[in-house]
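Inputs:
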Amino acid sequence: MFVGHQHDLRPQATAHLATTMSFLQLSTAELEAQLQQTLDKNPALELVDELRCPQCGKRLARYPCPRCAAPQDNDGLVVCLSQRTTFQSEPRDDDEQDFARDLRAPDRLDEYILQQIGPALTFAERPIAAYILARLDEHGLLPETASEIAAYTRARLVEVERVLSLIQHADPPGVGAHTPQASLLIQLDCLAENAAPATRPTLALARLIVEKHFETLGRHDLTRIARQLHVACSSVEAAADFIQRNLTPYPTLAFWGEGKLINPGNEDALTPDITISFLNRAEQGGSLLVEVFTPFSGWLRVSPELKAALHDCASEERERWSQAVMEAALVTKCLQQRNHTMRRLMRLIATEQRAFILGGDGDLHPLTRARVARELAVHESTISRAVAGKSAALPDGRIVPLSKFFDRSLSVRDRVRLLVEAETRPLTDDQISDCLAQQGLQVARRTVAKYRKMLGILPANIRARRHHRSITFIQ
DNA sequence: CTATGGCACGGATT
DNA sequence: AATCCGTGCCATAG
């Protein structure tokens, strides 16, 4: 979602401003499209593999030429498109969070599922599957009904239902269900296929409870269920415990483990605009290499030939070409600006959030765009634009949107997650709040509740025991 | 009475 | 100026 390229020729001042701004907020892919378009249309702008100094003729790795006096008149007409910024970040004295973090599981849920069901799909069913997967919410549930999907994809209901069934029975079982209840039922069915005979009765009872007494189960009124089903209370308890232990109302959580949510609408997490890696093998403690991706490699410049030829041509032509040259100069200048800003921004982020880059969510320091803007002496909106819609690949393979570096509460959320993971008996929101206070974090009870919800953790009275990270086979 | 979730307000952030 | 976020208050369920 970017502002369309202006085909008309505006007064320079506005055009400059507009281009600088819009370039900055473009992701690499979007920038590539824009640039390609401009390259095709504007003969004054050219892309060259290597650049030679107009004075000494030497091949340049930097512009302007470090040896010769910089050609002042050409200033701003050339931009290098291979960006590499390296720097040392301060060695840290305190913590020793140097243990290896486990590497990430597969990245995208929709791809993962598509991989599984792909072979079973007919050609016509593929778009339906793609649509459904795109519409999953962050818990892996499907807000729309099958008939709505059918209407939207102009497919027959039976086809949609078939695809839906495939998705629901693919690996994180229960994905694509309409409600948590439906999801649980599907998960139970999947479990039933491999169930050992001994667990069959429990399984059957669990299914019955979920199907007919879901509401009551939610209130944890087990005795009532037992009474209505004419079953022993202990059996109901066993079934409830089984459900608690092996199922999750949020299928993706089971799959992604501890609270790593994916955002299906956010495809820019796939193609990072920036990579951060270790400069040498010296792993921790060394410097970080930050690399800002650019659409093309090489140099972008205003064609010197065309510029020279400007003088001797008809005045009518000259008008148009001079416009073209100016636009080309503008584009390169803006690109320089963009690169400069991105480089400075990333340097700051990488030093400031070194702990987070090396470690995990809990190590994120609070950082605001406003502060970055102040330190870099640019306007706040500049930082906003620079951050918007871009993502960075971290040394350990995580791909995070740049906005994550500015998440105010990520580290606290992580603390909450750890607390709940380590709990022996369910902690109430108030207790969690107290624990946090002991760690020096003053967080209101109400806020803990919000974080809990964000993490997909059920309220204390519902989660009797720790929940498992994935559905395991029963023996 | 306790634990939560909903609504909404104020201040910070973008 | 618009939006986001933490939080307090209140209703509700157990």
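Chain A has three domains: 12-86+271-406, 109-256, 410-475. Flag for discussion at group meeting.
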